[in-house]
Design a protein that fits this description.
Blueprint (H helix, E strand, L loop, with lengths): L1 H6 L3 E4 L5 H6 L9 H10 L6 E6 L4 H17 L8 E4 L5 H9 L3 E7 L10 E7 L10 E7 L6 H18 L9
Parallel strand pairs: 1-3, 2-3, 2-4
Antiparallel strand pairs: 4-5, 5-6
Helix pairs in contact: 4-6
């Protein structure tokens, strides 16, 4: 819902997917930003932030609507200094690698809607990576999943994600390279 994105104060960019159908049938296009998106990020985002946070609809826009505001508030209350947040339409997790390269962020974190399951369509995940690069192995990502009112409470998830980001920054590693 564009009103949700506007209420969150985010600007919108899009991957190379032109529709939800393309997003579902061509996952590769959901991992690459459109040329216009690249230019918009370069123009509107703070470059070389310590942490770049962005939001993506993923497989459940209902999850974004239900949880994002509280997760972002939880992150802010923990004192995480972040770059310019924004929204990626039709984004897959892997687009974070290109966003990391464009912004030059030390840590990139995407809040993304999970595949609707048996319990709820409002479940969100956070994928976090240290100095993400295009083509990096999935094992370099750290994930916090099941963020929703009956799982990990969104505000608590924000604080937990912030704690993980601080540990990633200290260790200069994420995913399986991060020893907690």
């Amino acid at each position: 819902d564009p009103e949700v994105i506007e209420k969150l104060g985010l600007f919108t960019v899009q991957t190379k997917c032109d529709s939800k159908d393309t997003y579902l049938t061509r996952p590769d296009l959901g991992r690459v930003l459109s040329d216009e998106a690249v230019q918009t990020i370069k123009e509107k985002c703070k470059m070389h932030p310590t942490v770049q946070i962005y939001v993506s609809d993923g497989l459940s826009s209902a999850a974004v609507a239900a949880n994002t505001a509280d997760v972002l508030q939880g992150l802010k209350s923990y004192g995480i200094e972040a770059g310019t947040p924004f929204f990626v339409k039709y984004g897959r997790v892997g687009v974070m690698d290109q966003i990391s390269e464009i912004t030059g962020a030390d840590v990139t974190c995407v809040l993304i809607g999970e595949r609707p399951g048996l319990i709820t369509a409002e479940s969100m995940s956070a994928y976090i990576a240290y100095k993400a690069t295009v083509g990096m192995p999935e094992a370099r990502r750290t994930v916090v999943s099941n963020i929703h009112k009956d799982g990990t409470i969104p505000a608590e998830a924000g604080a937990h994600i912030a704690d993980i980001i601080k540990k990633i920054l200290e260790a200069k590693a994420s995913g399986t390279d991060l020893k907690l």
